[in-house]
Every structure is written in C-alpha cells, then in structure tokens.
Amino acid sequence: MRRVVRQSKFRHVFGQAVKNDQCYDDIRVSRVTWDSSFCAVNPRFVAIIIEASGGGAFLVLPLHKTGRIDKSYPTVCGHTGPVLDIDWCPHNDQVIASGSEDCTVMVWQIPENGLTLSLTEPVVILEGHSKRVGIVAWHPTARNVLLSAGCDNAIIIWNVGTGEALINLDDMHSDMIYNVSWNRNGSLICTASKDKKVRVIDPRKQEIVAEKEKAHEGARPMRAIFLADGNVFTTGFSRMSERQLALWNPKNMEEPIALHEMDTSNGVLLPFYDPDTSIIYLCGKGDSSIRYFEITDESPYVHYLNTFSSKEPQRGMGYMPKRGLDVNKCEIARFFKLHERKCEPIIMTVPRKSDLFQDDLYPDTAGPEAALEAEEWFEGKNADPILISLKHGYIPGKNRDLKVVKKNILDSKPAANKKCDLITVPKKTADPASVQNEAKLDEILKEIKSIKDTICNQDERISKLEQQMAKIAA
C-alpha cells in the first residue's frame, strides 16, 4: 500500500513570475535552431544569446538592469557565426565562455559593473573543433578547466589558463552529442548522444566507464545529468513520442531505477538540478510550464511535486546558482525565462511563517572558491566543491582577472607531456618563411579585428536609425 500523502518540505513549493517592471524587455532572443538554454545566470549578471547580423552575439546585463533594454546596448560580439551555448565560470562571476557555429570557443572577461562598450576581444580563443561547437561546460571544482563538445562528435577539455587543449575525446561518440554533464567533483562526465546511448566517461583515463544503449527509444533529443549521489538522470522520448524521465545507477545500467512517462509534447526537456534540495526542474523548450520533482531513496524515487504554468511558451531558460538567491524570502530557485522579446525571472519559494533563516532549506552550498588548480586536476587529483553557508546571505567578493599564459612552444621539451597522452603541439622551427608567414598572419588578424569593430559600430548605427524611423512612424 502506498501512503496517500508523502511527507516532504517541498510539497508546497510555488512559482511566481516577477512584475513586468522587473523583467528585461525588448531583447531579440536568438532564433537559431539549437537545443541549448540560450541563457546563463550568476549572482551578478544575466547573459542571453541574441539575434545578430554578421556573426554571433550575446547580451550581458547586470541583474539590476531591468526594464527596456536599448537596442544600442553593448554586446559581446567576437564570434563570426551564431553563438550556440554560453556558460558562466563557477569560480569567477566575471568570466563567461561561449561556443559558436564558427567552430571556436571564446572566453570573455566582463568588466565589474557590466559592459559600457561592445566587447569584440576575448581573453582567449580556443581552437580545436572542426565543426560548430554547441556545448560549453566549466569544471565544477577545478579552476580554469573548460569542456567543449562540437558537431564533430569530439569532446575537448581545455586548460583556459594556458589556452591549451589537454584532453581530446574524439573517438567515443559515433553521432551528435546532445549534452554533457560533470559529476559533483568533476572526476566523471556523462553524455547523451543521437545514437540513443547514455555514456559515463572518465575523461582523464579516456575510457567509457558505463553505457546504456537505447536509454530512451524515441528519435528526438535526450538529456543526461549527474546527480549528487552519482546516479544519472535522463530525459528523452519513448517510441510513441511520449516524453520520459528516468533514473539510472552507473554501476548497473541494465534497467533504470525509475522510468516515468509524462506527456506527448515534442519540446526537448531541459533538466535543472539543485543538489542541495535534490529537486529537479524540467523546462520543455516551447512549453509554457516548469515541472519539478524530488529525488529520494524511497520508491518511486522520482516524486512529482508540482507544475508552474504560464501563458507564454519559453524559448530558453537560465538557472541561478544557489548563492544568488534571497534566503530571507525562502527562495529555493530562480529561473530566467526567455520569451521572443523579453526575459522574465520566475521565483520558486517554500512558504514559511517564520522570518528566521531556514537552515533545512539552505544546507551549505557550493561557493565560488575553486578546490583545485587546473594542473592538479589534469594530474589526477579530485576534490569536492568548497561549501559556504548562506546564513547571512551571499556577498560577492572581488574576482581576480583571468590571466592566460600561453606556453612558448619553442621552449617546450618533447618529453614533458608523455604522462597521459596529452595533445602535443608540433614543434616549430624558426625558419625565415615561417617568420614571414607569422607577420602575414598578424596582418590578417589585425584586419579581421578592424572589420569586426566596424560591423559592431554599423550594428549600433543601424539600431539607432531604426529607433529614429520608429519615432517618425509613431
């Protein structure tokens, strides 16, 4: 016999959209056909991928800059093709990575108070993919370690501090990678792919630890994420195109721990997970609702809690890290829902009568301090996130600038990189022809930069003229 009512402090979580004047209005959200969330949020900024002529761009707005966003507001516009995915660095609230159709990954440093001029120069450009880059994901605990996955079916893990590709997993996926997720301490990754397989991979040993064929039988895109206990949560479609969610134990992937069917909508379900409360929020692309579930150790393991519904469908969704929430209002999640022309924050709250700090809702959470340096992680060390208390709210500290120290290839000793089959860059010999080529390359790069700057300026000029036209027409 099942108990009719299950005890849970999250049974009455309710969602509420903020008032209109607290939304970000008049934003041309990207129309590119790609199933990423198009939005990334941290306690300082919200970043949104937008429509851009002559390349790819995204907006970075300080959280307090609500209301109508002027068409001439500066953008981050260094890519030559549409931007497909963006991700804030968990250890520095002013650093963001972007992946694009132009086959590159770029890492940007945002000024402390936001942009005053359009940003065309990234701190570092990471080149290694031969097709568009649709996924970027920072390592949860090691500083300056970034993963990227492209339509060349390769996963590359970069040391952003040196601009080097140190791990290249290019023979593990036979088809397009839908998503990649790090586990809690960043020792493993799990991936969902178009070949209907879910794989658990040890990136440093470059081996597949576990895999499940046909995790979901339908042909539409799947998603797979790691939970804090090491289990894997997936969303996908059945053979009859019903949306499904499932829970798997990587030690035994034969049968799922739980499998639930939901509805027959065709939007991809994007999962957002809170390891502190074990709640998963599912946002379907093109849906107008957010469903949330609690994961527990007792059957049926995935417990439906509630649904937040609204009238407008969502084009994308941003999810605020725990340290950016208002603990005085018992806020346990904040989403940034993208409409066609605006971004609307949605606040999830647990109703409580007391105004005191609710320590059962806010266990210590992952803070912004990195537990490891990049080199330590690549050498094989693991570390859990460094936790902080939210008892007195989170006060953002001063972020140090991202410094990239490119290694001098001429000085590198060939034996240095033997340890774990890292990618070695071919040694250059300084013959006169190569010096001449480098000079030519510099010249071309300068020209490209000046053309990019011109495009940005022209974009701003066009939007000003459009505004003038609109005023005259009105």
TrEMBL record:
<dbReference type="GO" id="GO:0051895">
    <property type="term" value="P:negative regulation of focal adhesion assembly"/>
</dbReference>
<dbReference type="GO" id="GO:1900027">
    <property type="term" value="P:regulation of ruffle assembly"/>
</dbReference>
<dbReference type="GO" id="GO:0001755">
    <property type="term" value="P:neural crest cell migration"/>
</dbReference>
<dbReference type="GO" id="GO:0045184">
    <property type="term" value="P:establishment of protein localization"/>
</dbReference>
<dbReference type="GO" id="GO:2000394">
    <property type="term" value="P:positive regulation of lamellipodium morphogenesis"/>
</dbReference>
<dbReference type="GO" id="GO:0048246">
    <property type="term" value="P:macrophage chemotaxis"/>
</dbReference>
<feature type="repeat" description="WD">
    <location>
        <begin position="170"/>
        <end position="211"/>
    </location>
</feature>
<dbReference type="Pfam" id="PF00400">
    <property type="entry name" value="WD40"/>
</dbReference>
<dbReference type="GO" id="GO:0007015">
    <property type="term" value="P:actin filament organization"/>
</dbReference>
<dbReference type="GO" id="GO:0021591">
    <property type="term" value="P:ventricular system development"/>
</dbReference>
<dbReference type="GO" id="GO:0045672">
    <property type="term" value="P:positive regulation of osteoclast differentiation"/>
</dbReference>
<protein>
    <recommendedName>
        <fullName>Coronin</fullName>
    </recommendedName>
</protein>
<dbReference type="InterPro" id="IPR015048">
    <property type="entry name" value="DUF1899"/>
</dbReference>
<dbReference type="GO" id="GO:0051015">
    <property type="term" value="F:actin filament binding"/>
</dbReference>
<dbReference type="GO" id="GO:0022038">
    <property type="term" value="P:corpus callosum development"/>
</dbReference>
<dbReference type="Pfam" id="PF08953">
    <property type="entry name" value="DUF1899"/>
</dbReference>
<dbReference type="GO" id="GO:0016328">
    <property type="term" value="C:lateral plasma membrane"/>
</dbReference>
<feature type="repeat" description="WD">
    <location>
        <begin position="126"/>
        <end position="168"/>
    </location>
</feature>
<comment type="similarity">
    <text>Belongs to the WD repeat coronin family.</text>
</comment>
<dbReference type="InterPro" id="IPR015943">
    <property type="entry name" value="WD40/YVTN_repeat-like_dom_sf"/>
</dbReference>
<dbReference type="GO" id="GO:0097750">
    <property type="term" value="P:endosome membrane tubulation"/>
</dbReference>
<dbReference type="GO" id="GO:0010633">
    <property type="term" value="P:negative regulation of epithelial cell migration"/>
</dbReference>
<dbReference type="InterPro" id="IPR015505">
    <property type="entry name" value="Coronin"/>
</dbReference>
<keyword id="KW-0853">WD repeat</keyword>
<dbReference type="GO" id="GO:0010762">
    <property type="term" value="P:regulation of fibroblast migration"/>
</dbReference>
<dbReference type="GO" id="GO:0015629">
    <property type="term" value="C:actin cytoskeleton"/>
</dbReference>
<dbReference type="InterPro" id="IPR019775">
    <property type="entry name" value="WD40_repeat_CS"/>
</dbReference>
<dbReference type="GO" id="GO:0140285">
    <property type="term" value="P:endosome fission"/>
</dbReference>
<dbReference type="InterPro" id="IPR001680">
    <property type="entry name" value="WD40_rpt"/>
</dbReference>
<dbReference type="GO" id="GO:0016197">
    <property type="term" value="P:endosomal transport"/>
</dbReference>
<dbReference type="GO" id="GO:1900025">
    <property type="term" value="P:negative regulation of substrate adhesion-dependent cell spreading"/>
</dbReference>
<feature type="domain" description="DUF1899">
    <location>
        <begin position="3"/>
        <end position="67"/>
    </location>
</feature>
<keyword id="KW-0175">Coiled coil</keyword>
<dbReference type="GO" id="GO:0030027">
    <property type="term" value="C:lamellipodium"/>
</dbReference>
<dbReference type="InterPro" id="IPR036322">
    <property type="entry name" value="WD40_repeat_dom_sf"/>
</dbReference>
<dbReference type="GO" id="GO:0031267">
    <property type="term" value="F:small GTPase binding"/>
</dbReference>
<dbReference type="GO" id="GO:0090148">
    <property type="term" value="P:membrane fission"/>
</dbReference>
<feature type="repeat" description="WD">
    <location>
        <begin position="76"/>
        <end position="118"/>
    </location>
</feature>
<dbReference type="GO" id="GO:0016600">
    <property type="term" value="C:flotillin complex"/>
</dbReference>
<dbReference type="Pfam" id="PF16300">
    <property type="entry name" value="WD40_4"/>
</dbReference>
<keyword id="KW-0677">Repeat</keyword>
<dbReference type="GO" id="GO:0010008">
    <property type="term" value="C:endosome membrane"/>
</dbReference>
